[in-house]
Design goal:
Blueprint lengths: L1 E5 L9 E5 L9 H10 L8 E4 L6 H8 L4 E6 L2 H14 L4 E5 L2 H5 L6 E6 L8 H10 L3 E12 L11 E9 L2 E8 L8
Parallel strand pairs: 3-4, 3-6, 4-5, 6-7
Antiparallel strand pairs: 1-2, 7-9, 8-9
Amino acid sequence: MNNKLRIIGGDWRSRHILFNDAEGLRPTASRIRETLFNWLQNDVENRVCLDLFAGSGALSFEAASRGAKQVFQIENNAHVCRKLHENALKLSANTIKLIQSDAFRFLSGNSQLFDLVFIDPPFHQGLAVQSCQWLEDKGWLTTGAKIYLEVERGLSLEEIPTQWRCLKQKSAGEVDYYLFQRQINVRKNA
C-alpha cells in the first residue's frame, strides 16, 4: 500500500513523498518533524547528514529540502529502497545518496564524518542505543555533531555515549525524541 507524507519546509515545501508499508516502518509524525527542524534551524544547511534507518525518508528528504550539503539514506529493505529512490528521482534530489544496507553493516565499514545524524529505528528491537554507541566508538561524528534520536516512550538511555549532551527532549504519544550534541572536550575525572 502506498502512503504519503508532506515535506514541511525548504525547497520542496508542500511536496509529497510516497512510502510503502513495511514491518517496523513508522514515519516521523509531521508535528515532531516540525519541532525537530525548528530545533535545527541553523544546523542543516551545508551539513553532511546521515539517516541511519531511513524508512520513509521523512527526515532525510526534509534535511535535503532545507539545504543539506549531502544526505546519506541507509535502509535495509529492498522494497522500501525502491520507493526512496523513486522519491529522490521525482524531487531531483541530487544531494541524497541511498545505500541499501543493514545499519550495523554500514557502521562496520570505513567511517566518514557526519555533522547531523538521524536515528529513528524500529521500536522494541534494541537498536537505538547500540547505534549511538557505534557512531561514537567507530568515529562517524564530527566534533560538535548533532544527533536526533527517536525512540519508544520510556526507553532507558543510560548507555548513551558520555560525550553527548542532551540539548532538547520531548514526548508525543508513544514516542520520546531527543536532540544531542557531541561535546568538543569531555573532562575526565582523575
